[in-house]
Amino acid sequence: MVAAGKGERAGGLVPKQFQPLLGQPVLRRSVWAFAEVPEIGAIQIVTAEGLEPQTEEAVRGIACLPFALGGETRQESVCNGLEALAPHAPEFVLVHDAARPLVSPDLIRRVMTALEAGATAAIPVLALADTIKRKEPENWTSVSRCGGLYRAQTPQGFRFDALLAAHRAHASESVTDDMAIAERAGLPITPVAGDETNLKITTEEDFAYAARLLRGVMSEFRTGQGFDAHRFARGDHVWLCGVQIAHDAGLEGHSDADAGLHALTDAILGAIGAGDIGRHFPPTEEKWRDAPSSLFLAEAARLVAEANGAIVHCDVTLVCERPKITPHREAMRARVAEILRIGIDRVSVKATTTDGLGFTGRGEGLAAQAVATVRLPPD
Questions:
Q1: 22: left (phi > 0), else alpha (psi -120 to 50), else beta?
Q2: Would you call 258 helix, strand, or coil by DSSP?
Q3: Is the pTM of the predicted complex or chain greater than 0.70?
Q4: What is the rounded distance in angstroms from the CA atom of residue 377 to the CA atom of residue 309?
């Protein structure tokens, strides 16, 4: 894992490999991708002299070999890492740039499979579809209009002894990656399919793009459910899904007894594994007496945002004989969307009865159930 560069084009106060990407250092995401593949026997990180403490903090809790120190160039850094691995003499080695934190287990395994099938060097590549242009002093020149050009990615896989020998033999030559070293040494190269999401972070814009990829392509979706019920009591209105509705009774509860928002709050908290509404807003605490339930729902939304997640959709079903929900349904959807700061198209509110059965059928109270779907970046 080559992590000895300065990464100055990415900006920031520290090298890019230590900058956070959705809450985790870039280096940690890169290393963890390999730690999650059982076939990987050991991980050797190459870091810069003086950056050992930052490197150790970034990968804390992940089993790695003692760090190797990098050189003046990437080529020297890789060679130093290979020399550090030499006493272990692995059969195969993968060389990966720490600046590619979105590498997938599938891509790692494709490279490994090619090596195990007999390849000396296995390189992930992607064909260039665009016409390439070169800027000349007075004009532009088209380099290629008909393909035949490829982008090389990492991890690049090799037979360990062949790559180490190639680095030693061509140490005085300047190359940009290990595929170039293999070319100089005359090693046969086997291409494997690269991955468009295997982005190399170079600039500040790349950080933003990587974050979008993590939130989208590589996100995971979780679903939570909630349920709440309240009995009718003396009063002249009820609160349901954040809307006040005139009624010949109120709802009994420590707060405003909004069963719809309570159920939805529990559903969102459940989706992110954050307990239930009683844990965050205990009914034994006087400060929550008569509190608007919008506060509870807003806090659940804040916790989702704190986890770098997003609420994708929520669905509330109100179970009651009365009051009638249909006249207020759109106002409820709008209020829930406002509290959660999401589009109204992501909010559903429905109503049903129990045809006279149970406590809701007898008009003793009402109930609500909710389901919420949340998108989160992978651990």
A1: left
A2: coil
A3: no
A4: 7
**What integer pLDDT is reported at residue 12 of this predicted model?**
62
DSSP 326: G
User: Could you give the CA distance from residue 236 to residue 330 in angstroms, rounded to a whole number?
Assistant: 22
Tokens of 36: 């999650």
Q: Evaluate whether 2-215 and 220-376 have a shared fold.
A: no
Length of the chain in terms of residues written:
379
User: For 97, which DSSP code?
Assistant: B
User: 2-215 is classed in which CATH architecture?
Assistant: Alpha-Beta Complex (3.90)
Please provide residue 285's backbone torsions phi and psi, each rounded to the nearest 5 degrees. Answer: -90, 125
What are the domain boundaries of the chain? 2-215, 220-376
For 220-376, which CATH superfamily applies?
2-C-methyl-D-erythritol 2,4-cyclodiphosphate synthase (3.30.1330.50)
Exposed/middle/buried for 296, CB within 10 Å: 0-12, 13-18, 19+? buried
Q: What pLDDT, in 10s, does the model give residues 26-68?
A: 999 999 999 999 999 999 999 999 999 999 999 999 999 999 9
